[in-house]
Fold these 3 entries.
Entry 1:
Amino acid sequence: MSGREEFVTRFGGVFEHSPFIAERAYDDGFIHGELTADRVHTPMVAVFRAASEEERLGVLRAHPDLAGRLAISGELTEDSRKEQAGAGLDRLSAEEHKRFTELNDRYTEKFGFPFIIAVKGLNKDDILAAFEKRIGNSREEEFATAAGQVEKIALLRLTAMLPAR
């Protein structure tokens, strides 16, 4: 296996189901020296930001709904499953699950992509409050907010895989 293949295999899922980001970061020569969370995150974020709006929308759409259908059916990526469980989203009451489903549906209908938030350190009430606040944003505001959350999630995932610096 080449260095590129190993890199993409290891880091291709950091941006949810979007290995093109790892591929481009590697191909553009941004990845060199000791791999640390910061040294991998910075070039991957640069690639994400340089991607077309359609490609970035694809990355946003690759994220699962919070406490949504994929979680119920057990089809989340391992990272997403752990992240959602850490926020208690795997232990919602029937009423709480109904509220998440309603918000997920309204949000996706309005914006065309799922609600994305880095859930580490948050609980279900924090997430619901952010949901309620952000659903009032314009599409442009929310696209930028969701993209920033994707970058934060990527850093959290990389920090779990690599030394910070």
Entry 2:
Amino acid sequence: MTIAAAVFDAFGTLVEIQRPTHPFRKLIQEGRRQGRKPQPDDLRVIMTHQLSLAEAASAFGISVTADSLGRLEQSLEDELASIRPFPDALHAVGMLQAAGVRVGVCSNLASAYGPVIRQIFPYLHGYGFSYEVGAMKPEPAIYRATCEQLGVNLGCDEAEGRVFIVGDSARCDRDGPRQLGGCGFLLHRGGKGDFSNLLEFAQAVLER
């Protein structure tokens, strides 16, 4: 049986933010102080468009002074600088690539975070980032766009090759792919998911 590809979520799966500062949340809170009510699609706007903090403020009609914007941008830089890979992520990706498995990442994130993922994992076969695709997990378009980059079809068909997807969100990384006929799995480092670490996932991929 052929393994076509393995796809990882990014934050909470491949990498973690060790010193979160929540710059976009702070921007929304500033809007609230100015009388703007947070909207249900605020997160989607941030994660499906290539927006800087200044551009997000403009899109939401939030006024920020140069000093305030500078503080927000510094907050963002501090958060980005604190992103680190999980040790098991580096080993799992290396194990799969050494075995000839095509590896990609599929993640909901704002545009400032994508370059950091690419820097930490520079040799993946596909990077399905929501702000580039214009869709968020669990929407079908982002899984399909990621698989298109990998040159595979999303599915669990043994003849064509399976695409295994793993992440720390049951809704986005397990259930979303499964509803489309894919092989989705939940990573829960506390032991309440399909896998408790990514080495277990990589080993399972190679054994199936």
Entry 3:
Amino acid sequence: MKRTLALLLTPLCLLFASPVFAHGDEAHMKKPTVVKKEQKDWGIAGDGKAAKRTIDIKMLDSMRFTPDRIEVSQGDTVRLTMTNTGQVMHEMVLGTQTVLTEHAALMKRFPNMEHDEPYMAHVPPGKTGEIIWTFNQAGSFDFACLLPGHFEAGMVGKIEVKAAKGAQ
């Protein structure tokens, strides 16, 4: 009886399992096209068409970004393109020093935490990622790789957003 039941259920299991195996290509792993726009202290997600400037940044296994200092003007929408030239995963997260420090502590507790915010890019070795951001707040802000050990090793940078003329 058990053998007959197993013979009957095997084709049914294969029928439902097959689509799972066929659905694993990378095309489905891309970020959603709808970006959540939420005002942060350091700006808001930007539209690619509005980006007037691209800044290329290298992510290095020496736990550094090159360049590690960026200057933009208030109101600029910038395409930040990060290339991971190393052999390990890196990420770039925009924020304030306080936000980044708090998030780095969370990453230590939950190292496999997924990131899907528009001010974050997780970049595998040899790959390129991007953040499109509108810097609508003047001030001094930060970026960092928050993977455990990277932040502590100094994989950080600064963004200076110069106030727009006439702004106070």
